[in-house]
């Protein structure tokens, strides 16, 4: 790695789930730049985060480079042997006293498939627990559960290129694509320029709404009613695909009977929209030949998130827009490898490859593969682990590359949970807000210092290649897990990430044809990929659904759990901004990005601001039943009167002090998108 020549290392962007291919420019073991590469998902495009914020954090001076042990409330540097021995003895003692189910692990959706596979294997084998989860729990777990139930597979059905090129209409629901998945946003804008009609359903006037044929600005939390209304109109007008419904689906009559009640007038009242817009949206979508649904967290992060996702597949099945090019149900996954973390079994319900813990024979299969007895009980989700820690049922927690003190809703309850643990290990790149609570902090390594794979939102498994040597004493993450597992009595070792993928292929049928040699092709491989001859699956559910017949669900609309009232009169929604990525642990270490977006803000409508005497840029206090924060007003017409919006990137003025931790009953995903708040000038 010591060379004065600049070399290029092709890898995958470490930010959002688009999976852009990027060439890192490396000189003297330092990354000095990033250039777009011609990947299948990005076609020579990169956004501001990929271009400028994908590498500066790697060489940041405040990277963790040695293990730390907290003694008398202070972190002290420790050797790897000291730290690993302490971890094994403390987790081992808790397991011996309270059982494996007193331990839990949160894995890292930013890290590789190989790291995630080994992490969940360590938790299930050495720790004896199935309480293992990843951040999909708080973003797209509703997709995993909802699409798995209705279609048989909880993943994007088509490819990014397929849904943004040569399509007639794009139905975009609850996705601020320009800011959350900027390169896909650019491709949608390009499609519109080439004649595609865009229908945006979103409570905010997002960038893509300006490019849309129609913007339906429905109130946050009303998706299920809105989709039922669209289906009512489609059935009434004879626009449904009767042949597709008869041949490929079940449950249609129950769904039809339910949506008969969702007249345009009734739905318009619930969603606070014009019924004519609903009719126009239904016609634009149903009558188009090629028309994909693209959605994101505006659909999933609700107390009815899974039902919202099932509504997406209901709608697509009704018009026969599944299993063919230019169509499908297409969730945009948030983090670079959140699809992969789910695929690799970082879930309390599933072993790798969505092989269900409670399905006959699955536990036995993994007991044979991993040569040990396994816990046969479904585990707790991350959103259940935290309340269980407050109750004292969870005693020890291993957090790999997650920062729940910033990202989880109602932070006061996260603080209580972490403070109540007997033992907390955090494995990280930086001393994060969550790491401050740890008993032991371990320094992991970044994407640019390791080999492996990420799986992007379109199920495309792509290579991550080492560009520079790890800093200081930081160690490769999967090797740390192997050390911990071995010291806890389950010997584990892998010579390379490639050999981990070989093991994955041997236990996950949908990855059976995946190996590093094949992945050297820049296009990657899209799962399912069941054999060495299988080219992968760009479009799912062709001919038949993964579950056989597609399942219609009859889903009545239920309002959000906390709505505005006299004490808290504004409806708060949350989301991402273009410049920063999640907790900013990576993006805030790029100076230019930080200057462009230095602090949190709250979008509020001019009418409300005038009523309160608040001007654009003024400091305001925002409070809910859970807490109070101070931030800056961004006044305009981005949101409707009585609605407000905040991003979740900033620890100062962190919106998650006031969001609601109430969850959906099926996926146990929190309702980030709707809660009630009050605002006053400071
Ligand atoms: Fe990276 Fe996403 Fe931007 Fe692509 S769109 S460069 S993956 S942050």
UniProtKB/TrEMBL annotation:
It is found in: Membrane. Residues 6-61 form the 4Fe-4S Mo/W bis-MGD-type domain. GO terms for molecular function: 2 iron, 2 sulfur cluster binding; 4 iron, 4 sulfur cluster binding; formate dehydrogenase (NAD+) activity; metal ion binding; molybdopterin cofactor binding; NADH dehydrogenase (ubiquinone) activity; NADH dehydrogenase activity. Its cofactor is [4Fe-4S] cluster; Mo-bis(molybdopterin guanine dinucleotide); [2Fe-2S] cluster. Keywords: 2Fe-2S, 4Fe-4S, Iron, Iron-sulfur, Membrane, Metal-binding, Molybdenum, NAD, Oxidoreductase, Repeat, Translocase. The keyword S-adenosyl-L-methionine does not apply. GO terms for cellular component: membrane. Its main location: membrane. GO terms for biological process: ATP synthesis coupled electron transport; formate metabolic process. In the C-terminal section; belongs to the prokaryotic molybdopterin-containing oxidoreductase family. Belongs to the complex I 75 kDa subunit family. This is Formate dehydrogenase, alpha subunit. It comes from Loigolactobacillus bifermentans DSM 20003. The chain holds residues 224 to 905 of 906 of the full protein.
């Amino acid at each position: 790695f010591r060379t004065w020549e600049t070399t290029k290392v092709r890898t995958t962007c470490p930010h959002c789930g688009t999976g852009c291919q990027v060439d890192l420019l490396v000189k003297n073991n330092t990354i000095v730049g990033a250039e777009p590469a011609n990947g299948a998902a990005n076609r020579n495009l990169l956004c501001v985060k990929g271009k400028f914020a994908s590498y500066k954090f790697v060489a940041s001076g405040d990277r963790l480079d040695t293990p730390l042990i907290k003694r008398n409330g202070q972190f002290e540097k420790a050797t790897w042997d000291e730290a690993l021995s302490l971890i094994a003895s403390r987790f081992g003692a808790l397991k011996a006293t309270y059982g494996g189910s007193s331990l839990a692990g949160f894995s890292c959706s930013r890290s590789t498939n190989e790291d995630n596979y080994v992490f969940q294997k360590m938790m299930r084998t050495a720790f004896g627990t199935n309480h293992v989860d990843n951040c999909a729990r708080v973003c797209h777990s509703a997709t995993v559960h909802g699409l798995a139930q209705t279609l048989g597979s909880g993943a994007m059905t088509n490819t990014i290129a397929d849904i943004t090129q040569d399509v007639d209409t794009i139905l975009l629901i609850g996705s601020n694509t320009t800011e959350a998945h900027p390169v896909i946003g650019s491709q949608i804008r390009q499609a519109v320029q080439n004649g595609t009609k865009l229908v945006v359903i979103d409570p905010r006037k997002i960038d893509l709404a300006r490019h849309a044929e129609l913007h339906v600005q429905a109130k946050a939390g009303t998706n299920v009613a809105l989709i039922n209304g669209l289906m009512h109109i489609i059935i009434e007008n004879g626009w449904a695909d009767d042949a597709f419904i008869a041949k490929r689906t079940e449950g249609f009559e129950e769904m039809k009977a339910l949506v008969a009640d969702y007249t345009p007038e009734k739905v318009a009242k619930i969603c606070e929209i014009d019924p004519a817009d609903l009719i126009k949206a239904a016609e634009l979508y149903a009558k188009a030949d090629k028309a994909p649904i693209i959605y994101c967290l505006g659909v999933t992060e609700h107390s009815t998130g899974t039902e919202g996702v099932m509504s997406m597949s209901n709608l697509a099945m009704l018009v026969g827009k599944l299993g063919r090019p230019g169509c499908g149900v297409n969730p945009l996954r948030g983090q670079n490898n959140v699809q992969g973390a789910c695929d690799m079994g970082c879930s309390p319900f599933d072993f790798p490859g969505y092989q269900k813990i409670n399905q006959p024979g699955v536990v036995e299969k993994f007991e044979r593969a991993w040569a040990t007895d396994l816990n046969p009980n479904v585990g707790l989700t991350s959103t259940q682990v935290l309340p269980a820690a407050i109750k004292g049922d969870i005693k020890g927690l291993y957090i790999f590359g997650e920062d729940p003190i910033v990202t989880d809703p109602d932070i006061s309850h996260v603080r209580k949970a972490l403070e109540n643990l007997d033992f907390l290990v955090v494995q990280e790149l930086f001393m994060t807000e969550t790491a401050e609570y740890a008993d032991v902090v371990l320094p992991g390594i970044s994407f640019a210092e390791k080999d492996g794979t990420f799986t992007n939102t379109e199920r495309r498994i792509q290579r991550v290649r080492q560009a520079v040597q790890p800093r200081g004493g930081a160690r490769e993450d999967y090797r740390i897990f192997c050390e911990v597992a071995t010291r806890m009595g389950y010997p584990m070792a892998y010579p390379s990430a490639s050999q981990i993928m070989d093991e994955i292929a041997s236990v996950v049928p949908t990855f059976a044809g995946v190996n590093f040699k094949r992945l050297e092709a820049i296009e990657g491989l899209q799962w399912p990929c069941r054999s060495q001859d299988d080219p992968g699956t760009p479009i799912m559910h062709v001919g038949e659904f993964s579950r056989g017949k597609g399942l219609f669900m009859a889903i009545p609309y239920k309002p959000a759990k906390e709505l505005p009232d006299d004490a808290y009169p504004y409806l708060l929604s949350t989301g991402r901004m273009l410049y920063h990525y999640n907790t900013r642990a990576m993006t805030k270490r790029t100076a230019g990005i930080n200057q462009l977006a230095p602090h949190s803000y709250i979008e509020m409508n001019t009418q409300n601001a005038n009523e309160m005497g608040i001007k654009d840029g003024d400091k305001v206090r925002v409070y809910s039943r859970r807490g109070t924060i101070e931030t800056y007003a961004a006044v305009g017409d981005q949101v409707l009167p009585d609605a407000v919006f905040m991003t979740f990137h900033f620890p100062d003025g962190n919106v998650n002090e006031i969001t609601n931790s109430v969850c959906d009953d099926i996926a146990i995903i929190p309702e980030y998108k709707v809660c009630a708040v009050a605002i006053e000038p400071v």
